[in-house]
């Protein structure tokens, strides 16, 4: 557990010392969200209809941007191979790194989403559900993107391929997430999709670190 | 006969579906063959070369 | 399900034998060096029939060695001869195309975390986070290795005391190398695997390192050092592995 | 765990190469013959569907290619998993060989599905249909696998990294499938086993099943042929290959 905390704190510290990079995914998100209404030349009613989907897709894309370099800088300066050799299970290290990066990159993003939802005329009453769905989706999303980052850790230009690997796997997240928000906009019960989102989160967090650790290990071989 | 080919008005769909499936099969057979041919070609080129030089490191103890 | 079988199933580029059953070679040592019939539990590093291929190129094959407590191995060879590859294989960071490396009788890829902590590897990369200070880097390392201890003494020995609170990005190449060596020293590992550790070091730094290696061996430690200047470390009884 | 002898033999490239050489003509011959017979039966002999008319004749290729695409992914993932865990290079060779074939069949299933959808639903692409979406996502998984493979120079590393992706993918396939199904169900229920036994009449069912067998055998034929090429490529300068080529192999 000490090692977990050490890795977590170190990554948080490094992230805050490079704080300007933390803003990139947020800016990206805002730009994507702004572009959609431009492309749709919409009315208020139309915006509300597509808004939820736009927000979810924009969140997926931004998180892809945010977590892409998760292992790259550690691999470049050699600290990743040292972590592999350390007397600590790699799954633990990996989990700590994912948690740290999700905290500093996804959390601000998740705060931004409900705000943007207002600009799409999504009713205020639906925002808690939207926020909850995002929070429940975040673990799965971070694990998936981290897996993509781990699979491409040894590739010079891995960035373009991560999306190809990860986005098809995010289908269920998108379905349950948008469905939960949709239902709450219509004032219907949202328990089912939210429970399914939590089930996915449990699955991802319990199995994901093993796959990520294996991918990192093979990548550095 | 033309009745058979028109497939009750759906001929275009049915025949293009079968045609595309056939094309995919042919492409796959061709790809497999091409891959095999190029692999054998490369192996033959390698076989004409000398065997890869092997290197056994020397291990000795300093006195 | 143990993964031990995998050695039998790796087919090899060198053997015609369809079933590369090489089980009998592991643990049996035809060319034992000197005094050792090494016990399984003793801290010993053994290489068995190691081979490494890069694509269609053979870096080395049939490499066989034993290294016991207090013993040093020097890896020498021209650029690209496979020194780094071999060191990474010894550390468990890479897989040999054939053969096995064992530490205390266990394949290095399958060591329990505690046993893995006995091995320290220092490669070309210093593993310093550029945005953290030297002190932060060192204490992170100590925390992960579970060996927190004061590092002022080590830093003083390396003439890094004044730099402890400077971010690693402002260090010179030689200073970064010194900081990496501080991590090595603080790891208190039994086996040191060093890849050209004197790169960028000045004469004084090399002296400190050579002294550390001698002390490490005196205390019963083991070291494998890849180097172009074997004379700096050479000592009676050391193994010279020429790739 | 002690593995039986045949398992070890399946780890030996020359043995598998010869096995494939012996099996492939049979698989190919029977597979293609079944496809020819099934197509003739389906197009000429079988009666048109009482609801959909002649457009339903696509039923003799669409479900079959879709099934083979899915089977290919399972073969790919199982082979990759075995290769990863036991470090058997031949298993990786099987996985690599299955991927492009599977991608082609999945592509074929999507296209024939669209061509069937047009006369049946009035649209080529029904975004709301769960099976189309599952198929499309399966195609993306194949393409992701192939793209990741292509990005590596080192074959061993590519094998092991893509194996992880394949296994993660196969865990995800049922999740994707059921989530998409839950998301929307517009599609007709499974054709073969609707409530109360097969809904198809025998003269439709026979060619339907013949085509299943035909496509499956054809897939394995293509797989073996690709596997042979892959073995030759991977063995490079191995001695058995040199001797075999020196003996004047084709």
Keywords for this entry:
heterotetramer; B: 63 residues; mainly alpha; 2 helices; 6% strand; rod-shaped; D: 250 residues
User: What oligomeric state do the depicted chains represent?
Assistant: heterotetramer
First-last Cα distance of chain D: 40 Å
Mean pLDDT of chain B: 85
Q: How would you sum up the major sheet of chain B?
A: none
Strand content of chain D: under 5%
Number of helices of chain D: 8
State the shape of chain D.
Answer: globular
| 3D shape of chain B | rod-shaped
C-alpha end-to-end distance of chain B: 96 Å
Count of DSSP E strands of chain D?
0
Low-confidence stretches of chain D: 185-198
Largest sheet of chain D: none
Approximate helicity band of chain B? 55-70%
The overall average pLDDT of chain D, rounded, is 85
Which structural class best describes the helix and strand composition of chain D?
A: mainly alpha
Computed Rg of chain D: 20 Å
Order of helices and strands of chain D: HHHHHHHH
Tell me the helix content of chain D: over 70%
Structure description:
The complex is a heterotetramer of chains A (221), B (63), C (243) and D (250). With 63 residues, chain B is mostly helical. Chain B has a domain at 22-48. In chain B, 68% of the residues lie in helices and 6% in strands. Chain B has helices at 2-6, 11-48, and one strand at 58-61. The longest helix of chain B has 38 residues, at 11-48. In chain C, strand 7 (191-195), helix 7 and strand 8 (222-226) form a beta-alpha-beta unit. Chain C contains seven helices and nine strands, in the order H-E-E-E-H-E-E-H-E-H-H-H-E-H-E-E. Chain C has a five-stranded parallel β-sheet, with helices on both faces. A four-stranded antiparallel β-sheet of chain C has the order 2-1-4-5, with helices on one face. Chain D has one domain. Chain D has helices at residues 5-9, 13-45, 62-86, 89-121, 130-151, 155-183, 202-235, 239-246. In chain D, helix 3 (62-86) crosses helix 6 and helix 3 (62-86) packs parallel to helix 7. The model of chain D is unreliable at 185-198 (pLDDT under 50). Classes of the chains: A mainly alpha (221), B mainly alpha (63), C alpha/beta (243), D mainly alpha (250). Chain B binds chain C through residues 46, 52-63, and chain C through 14, 31, 33-34, 56-65, 77, 234-243.
Summarize the structure.
The complex is a heterotetramer of chains A (221), B (63), C (243) and D (250). Chain A is mainly α. Chain A has helices at 2-17, 19-40, 44-67, 72-77, 79-85, 90-119, 127-151, 159-166, 171-185, 191-220.
Protein topology:
The complex is a heterotetramer of chains A (221), B (63), C (243) and D (250).
Chain A: H1 2-17, H2 19-40, H3 44-67, H4 72-77, H5 79-85, H6 90-119, H7 127-151, H8 159-166, H9 171-185, H10 191-220
Chain B: H1 2-6, H2 11-48, E1 58-61
Chain C: H1 6-9, E1 45-54, E2 57-67, E3 72-76, H2 83-91, E4 98-103, E5 106-107, H3 113-116, E6 119-122, H4 134-145, H5 152-157, H6 173-187, E7 191-195, H7 203-218, E8 222-226, E9 239-242
Parallel strand pairs in C: 3-8, 3-9, 6-7, 7-8
Antiparallel strand pairs in C: 1-2, 1-4, 4-5
């Amino acid at each position: 557990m000490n090692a977990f905390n050490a890795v977590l704190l170190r990554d948080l510290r490094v992230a805050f010392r490079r704080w300007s990079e933390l803003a990139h995914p947020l800016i990206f998100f805002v730009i994507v969200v702004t572009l959609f209404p431009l492309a749709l030349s919409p009315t208020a009613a139309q915006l509300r209809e597509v808004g939820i989907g736009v927000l979810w897709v924009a969140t997926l894309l931004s998180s892809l941007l945010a977590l892409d370099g998760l292992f790259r800088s550690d691999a470049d300066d050699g600290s990743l191979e040292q972590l592999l050799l350390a007397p600590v299970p790699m799954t633990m290290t990996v989990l700590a790194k994912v948690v740290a990066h999700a905290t500093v990159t996804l959390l601000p993003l998740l705060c931004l989403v409900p705000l943007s939802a207002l600009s799409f005329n999504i009713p205020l009453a639906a925002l808690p559900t939207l926020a909850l769905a995002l929070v429940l989706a975040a673990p799965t999303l971070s694990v998936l993107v981290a897996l993509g980052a781990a699979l491409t850790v040894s590739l010079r230009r891995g960035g373009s391929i991560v999306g190809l690997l990860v986005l098809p796997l995010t289908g269920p997240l998108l379905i349950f997430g948008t469905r939960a928000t949709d239902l709450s906009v219509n004032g219907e019960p949202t328990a089912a999709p939210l429970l399914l989102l939590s089930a996915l989160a449990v699955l991802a967090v319990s199995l994901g670190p093993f796959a990520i650790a294996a991918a990192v290990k093979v990548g550095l071989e | 006969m033309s009745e058979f080919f028109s497939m009750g008005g759906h001929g275009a769909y049915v025949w293009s579906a079968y045609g595309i499936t056939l094309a995919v099969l042919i492409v796959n057979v061709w790809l497999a063959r091409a891959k095999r041919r190029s692999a054998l070609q490369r192996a033959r080129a390698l076989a004409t070369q000398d065997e890869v030089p092997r290197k056994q490191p020397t291990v000795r103890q300093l006195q | 399900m143990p993964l031990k079988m995998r050695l039998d199933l790796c087919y090899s580029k060198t053997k015609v034998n369809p079933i590369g059953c090489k089980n009998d070679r592991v643990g049996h040592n035809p060319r034992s060096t000197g005094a050792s019939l090494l016990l399984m539990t003793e801290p010993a590093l053994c290489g068995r029939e190691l081979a490494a291929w890069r694509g269609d190129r053979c870096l080395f094959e049939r490499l066989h060695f034993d290294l016991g407590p207090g013993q040093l191995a020097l890896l020498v060879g021209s650029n690209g001869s496979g020194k780094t590859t071999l060191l990474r294989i010894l550390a468990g960071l890479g897989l040999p195309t054939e053969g096995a490396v064992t530490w205390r009788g266990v394949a290095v890829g399958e060591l329990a975390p505690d046993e893995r902590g006995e091995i320290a590897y220092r490669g070309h990369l210093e593993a310093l986070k550029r945005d953290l200070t030297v002190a932060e880097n060192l204490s992170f390392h100590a925390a992960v290795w579970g060996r927190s201890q004061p590092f002022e003494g080590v830093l003083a020995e390396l003439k890094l005391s004044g730099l402890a609170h400077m971010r690693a990005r402002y260090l010179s190449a030689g200073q970064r190398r010194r900081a990496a060596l501080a991590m090595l020293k603080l790891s208190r590992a039994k086996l040191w695997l060093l890849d050209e550790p004197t790169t960028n070091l000045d004469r004084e730094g090399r002296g400190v390192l050579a002294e550390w290696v001698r002390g490490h061996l005196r205390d019963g430690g083991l070291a494998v050092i890849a180097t172009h200047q074997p004379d700096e470390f050479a000592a009676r009884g050391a193994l010279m592995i020429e790739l | 765990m002690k593995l039986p002898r045949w398992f070890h033999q399946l780890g030996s490239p020359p043995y598998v190469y010869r096995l494939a050489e012996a099996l492939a003509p049979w698989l190919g011959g029977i597979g293609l013959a079944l496809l020819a017979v099934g197509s003739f039966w389906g197009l000429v002999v079988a009666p048109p569907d009482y609801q959909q008319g002649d457009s339903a004749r696509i039923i003799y290729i669409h479900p079959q290619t879709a099934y083979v695409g899915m089977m290919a992914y399972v073969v790919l993932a199982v082979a990759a998993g075995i290769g990863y865990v036991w470090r058997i290079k031949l298993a990786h060779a099987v996985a690599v060989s299955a991927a492009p074939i599977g991608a082609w069949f999945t592509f074929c299933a999507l296209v024939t599905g669209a061509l069937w959808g047009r006369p049946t639903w009035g649209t080529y692409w029904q975004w709301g249909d769960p099976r189309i979406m599952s198929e499309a996502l399966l195609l993306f998984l194949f393409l992701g696998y192939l793209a990741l493979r292509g990005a590596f120079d080192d074959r061993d590393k590519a094998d092991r990294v893509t194996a992880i992706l394949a296994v993660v993918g196969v865990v995800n396939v049922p999740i994707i499938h059921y989530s998409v199904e839950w998301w929307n169900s517009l599609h007709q229920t499974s054709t073969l086993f609707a409530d109360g036994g097969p809904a198809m009449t025998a003269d439709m069912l026979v060619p339907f099943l013949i085509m299943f067998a035909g496509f499956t055998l054809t897939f394995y034929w293509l797989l073996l042929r690709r596997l042979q090429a892959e073995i030759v490529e991977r063995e490079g300068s191995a001695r058995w290959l040199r001797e075999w080529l020196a003996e004047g192999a084709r």
